[in-house]
Amino acid sequence: MSGVHDMGGRPNDDPIDQSQHILSDWERHTHAMVGVLREKRLITTDELRRGIESIAPQEYERLSYYERWSASLETLLVEKGLVTQEEIDARAEVLREKWG
Amino acid sequence: MSTHTHQGHDHGHDHDGHEHEGMLEDVELSERARRVLAMEELLAEKGVVDRTEVQRLIDFQEARSPVDGARVVARAWTDPDYKGRLLSDPEGALLELGYPLVGSAKLAVLENTDAVHHLVVCTLCSCYPTSLLGLPPDWYKSFAYRSRAVVDPRGVMREFGLDVGDTEVRVVDSTADLRYLVLPQRPAGTEGMTEEELVALVTRDSMIGVGVALAPVA
């Protein structure tokens, strides 16, 4: 059985939504951070995809495109020991307190 | 990074709608934004990335647009030798015009003719020649396009207003290692136009295959 990401030919009657959203800063930064880490050979495109494709199917379908990217990036950074999960959680909490 | 400006409320105030169901999506997005900023700050503090490098890549990506691809196409329309190089050595041909391919993925250029029309999709994700055309449109990454393009390409193209009639349609599925650029057909009635004038006829959608180049304004 193919994974949730393997969408080619999957039954889908939805019309294609051609509207375009303007990228948020956090989306641009997600994309660029992945690019910088790739240039430094700290992560690869295949690893990023593996991280995206291992998101649980229901979650995969619920998350937006860059939410999937950033979730995968978080997984990879922790896996590679570049940053710990505790550090990310703690810093995100600091930022929440700072901004309300 | 100014992610906090997207939360739609004044900083430091406590009425940010955490209890309001209608705000759930906002709250989730900003939580994700906080985690992204947290990762960037931590990587910078540890010396893993320099934040100016992140900004440099953002600037590079924002400077790319389908106009860059359109210049490549217009050159190929007006210079047969260049077209030959574009089809046989896309990376070298792009470099000639000042467009380096970034990343390890190769690029293949697919020429549309009276006999064959190409349509590009990435069923698995979103692979796209971003270092030439900029970031892909949202619809290219949508589940509907990824699912349907390979089984009903003509129906998909009709939704974009394109009917290719009896022309053979070849759908190509991009991968992380190989991306595609469609070389659309030069429209009829453009024989007297300059390369610069032709650039304006080449749409993003014509380089993905859900459209064709625009007809010249009479």
Give the overall shape of chain B, derived from the CA principal axes: globular
Largest sheet of chain A: none
- Examine the coordinates and then state which fold CATH places here, giving the name of the CATH topology of chain A: Cyclin A, domain 1
- In percent terms, what proportion of residues of chain A is strand? under 5%
- CATH superfamily of the largest domain in chain B, please? Nitrile hydratase alpha /Thiocyanate hydrolase gamma
Distance between the termini of chain B: 47 Å
Proportion in helices of chain B? 40-55%
Radius of gyration of chain A: 16 Å
Strand order of the largest sheet of chain B: 1-4
Shape of chain A: globular
Model regions low in confidence, pLDDT < 50 over at least 5 residues of chain B: 1-28
Oligomer: heterodimer
Give the name of the CATH architecture of the largest domain in chain B: Alpha-Beta Complex
The total tally of domains of chain A equals 1
Average pLDDT, all residues of chain A: 93
Class computed from helices, strands and strand pairing of chain A: mainly alpha
Salient structural properties:
heterodimer; A: 100 residues; mainly alpha; Cyclin A, domain 1; 60% helix; B: 218 residues; alpha/beta; Nitrile Hydratase, Chain A; two-stranded parallel ribbon; 11% strand; globular
Structure description:
- The complex is a heterodimer of chains A (100) and B (218).
- Chain A has 100 residues and is mainly α.
- Chain A has one domain: Nitrile hydratase, beta subunit (Cyclin A, domain 1, Orthogonal Bundle).
- Chain A is 60% helix and 0% strand.
- Chain A has 5 helices and no strands.
- In chain A, helix 1 (25-39) packs across helix 4 (65-79) and helix 2 (45-53) packs across helix 4.
- Chain B is of the alpha/beta class.
- Chain B has 2 domains: 18-61; 65-208, Nitrile Hydratase, Chain A (Alpha-Beta Complex).
- Chain B has a two-stranded parallel sheet.
- In chain B, helix 3 (66-78) crosses helix 4 (80-88) and helix 4 crosses helix 5 (90-96).
- The longest helix of chain B is centred in the first third of the chain and has 22 residues, at 24-45.
- In chain B, 34% of the residues are buried.
- Mean pLDDT of chain B is 88; it is low at 1-28.
